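Field reference: sequence -> structure
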Amino acid sequence: MRVLQDPVIGLECRKLFEDGVVDDRFLIILFLTVERLLKNSSWMPYLDMLPESFGNPLWFTDDEIEELKGTTLYRASELQKKKLKDIFDSKVKDLVKKLLLLHGNTDSEVFFQDFLWANAVFWTRALNIPLPHSYVFPTIEESETCIPIDTLSETSVDNACGRTSNSINNLKVNEVDLVGNRFDNAIGPEQEETVWVEGLVPGIDFCNHSLRPGATWEVDRKGSITGIPVAMYLLSAEQTPVPNQELTISYGDKGNEELLYLYGFVMDNNPDDYLMVHYPVESLQSAPCSDAKSQLLQAQNAEMRCLLPRHLLAHGFFPVGSSPKDCNNNVKAAKVCNYSWSGCRRIPSYLSELIFPEDFLAALRTISMNDEQIYQVSSMLEELVGSEEKQPSETEVRTAVWEACGDAGAFQLLVDLLQMKMMELEEGSGTEDSDSQLLENAHIETTRQSTRYNGDLNGSIKKKYITRNTWSAIVYRRGQKQLTRLFLREAEHALELSITEQGG
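Structure field:
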C-alpha cells in the first residue's frame, strides 16, 4: 500500500497491480529496484544502510556454488537464478524504465544485478505483520474503492520472486511458513479486522537470528506503549537487558537448507536441521503398473517426499540427541493403518521406534508392490465395497496395501533412496569426516559479509583461507551427510526387523 500511495509512481503501480501484471511481493521488489537507481530517493538513507551483496547461493561465485554439488540447493539455486534472469529480461527491465521515466530519469540503466539485489533485500528482510484493516487499506483520495483483500498474493508472480511452498521442490514447507516471518506475535482480539501483510520495517529488519533471541517484535495497535498508533517495537526477552549486547530475534525453526537459501547464513550443529527425501516421479512413471499405483497413491493421499527433521532421531532405534518437541507422538498419531485386516500379518514390534512419516511409507509400500500384490489389494477393496457405489476410505486403502505387501519393500526403497542421496553428496566433496577436516583447518576471509575465524593455528597445521560462502556451503553439506548417515542407519535396521518379522 505504501507503493500504491507513492506520489510519483503510485497510480501506474496501481494499474499494474489491478491488471495482474504484478502481485504485492513483486511490486515491492520492483519499487526497491527503482528507488535504488534514483539519486534523490526519499528512501536513500535506509537503502544506503542495506548490504550491497548477500550470502545466499544466488550470489555465490562459480567456485563457491561448486561446493554445493550433490545437495538440494545446487540445482535449485541454478534454476532459480535462471528463472529470475528470464523475469528480468521479459518484464522487469521495461517496467523499471517506465517507472523511472515518471521520475524524469532518462539516464539510469537497470541491470540484472539491481533486480537481484532488490529480490534479496525483500526475501531476507520481509516480516509477516498483523495490522488493522484500516491501516493496510486506508481511504485514498479520488479513489472510490480500495484494493480487495483477496488480491493480495500467497505466491509470487511466476513463482520468481523467492519462496513458494515448493519453490525449490525441496524446502521445508511446514512445509514453509511465510518467508521472513521472523516472529509471529499474535495480538489480542480487537473489534477491527486484522490483516496479515508482508513488508519491510527499517530498524527491526537489522536484527540477526538466534536460537535464544534476546527480543521479540510486537505491534502497538493503539499506541499505548510507543505513543504512536500501529507502531512496531522490540521487547526484550530478558528481565534485565544487558547493555551493549546485540539484540537478536527468531526467524523461526529453520534448517540450514532454508537459512542458506533464504537468508544467506547457516548455523553449525543446527538443532532444526532436516533432510529432504523424495521418490522421483519419473521413476514411478516408468515402473510396471504405474497407472494402478498412481491411483492407489492418490486414494491414500500418500506423499512422494518427506522431511526428516533432526529431532526425530531422538525417538528412533538408535536415539541421538534429545528433543523438547513432542514430534514422536505426531508421527505415531499418523499411523492410522489397521494392522489386523485378516490376521495374516502381526502388528510390527518396531512400530514405537519407527520415525519415518506414515504418509511417505504409504507411498513407498505402494510403489514397491508387484502385479500379484496390486491384484490382491484390488480384490480386498472390491470385497469391502461390494455392490455399493462408494469409494473405500484412505485408511481402508492403506490397510489393504499393508496387508498385501507389508513393510519390507518400502524400507528397501527407503534404504536405496538414502544410499543414493549419500552417493550424490559424497561424489564431489568426499565424506562427512573430510568436510569436518576442511572446517577444522579453515580460516575465513574477512569480507563485508563475514568475520575472521577465531582460533589458533594448532601448531604446524596450516589454515586454509576460504570465503564465508564456502564455509557456509561446507557446514550445510556436512550436516546433510550426517543426517543421511543417521537416517540410513534407522532405515536399514527397520528393514532387517521387517524381513525377520514378516518374512519379507
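Note: The chain is about 40% helix and 10% strand.
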